[in-house]
Amino acid sequence: MAMLSSASASFHRLTTSSPSIPTPFLPSSASLLPKSTTTRYKNRVYFSTFAIRKPIQLDILQEEETEMAEEESVSESVLYSISPLPLLVIGALPGAGTIRSLFGPFVDLVKSLDLPGWLVHWGHPGNMAVVLFAMGGYGTYLGFRIRFSDNVDEKAMAKDLHPKLLAGMFFFFALGATGGVTSLLTSDRPILESPHAVTGLIGLTLLALQTTLPTLFEGNPGLRNVHGILGSGIMTLFLVHAALGLQLGLSY
């Protein structure tokens, strides 16, 4: 009984007195940290919320970035167009005025010769049609014979004549462009604003590129296929160019 009384007294002293919890050592910046007071021990306990604050800030930044991306996606407009009309901006370049000034004396000379109107009007289309179908058409045919002919003599002849015909076509097309410009200027028409002029410039550029491909055949035989496909595309483009030129000629 004495032992029970002693244990009961010790238990009573433990429950009625609050143990003192030592406060941990904190640096001078601890006063800036949030504080919490427990209701059981009445001691001040300091703790840092940096570990909690950082993910919260990351979440806020991610939400802001998401909102900005949504705003950009709403305000951004992407336009796609397959119309060739934007190519006509070439006509707004200052090159048109330069060409007019350069061709001015020659145009005055042509007007002073008092040539028949039909010759000035249709001379350029007639000459270019001959170049397109005679030199370009036959040169294209020879190009296919080089690829598919089994006759050694025919293939040798085609290899010799094909580059000469296509080079001649390029030369006469470039020279004939001056005739087309002269014809338009003598009739007081715009020179670079038409689809006919745009397709002509594109065609001449592609022809110039086409002439450089054969020099690269030895190092890359696969370019022969590119040369054939590009050549067929150029001829198709010049057929469209001819149709647009006929339409332009009939418009005035």
Q: What layout of secondary structure does this protein have?
A:
Blueprint: H1 2-16, E1 35-37, E2 44-46, H2 50-75, H3 95-112, H4 117-148, H5 152-186, H6 195-212, H7 223-250
Antiparallel strand pairs: 1-2
Which tags fit this structure?
single chain; 252 residues; mainly alpha; two-stranded antiparallel sheet; 7 helices; 2 strands
How is this structure best described in words?
The protein is built from seven helices and two strands; from the N terminus they run αββαααααα. It has helices spanning 2-16, 50-75, 95-112, 117-148, 152-186, 195-212, 223-250, and strands at 35-37, 44-46. Strands 1-2 form a two-stranded antiparallel ribbon. β1 and β2 form a beta hairpin. The longest helix has 35 residues, at 152-186. It is flat, with a radius of gyration of 44 Å. The relative contact order is 0.08.
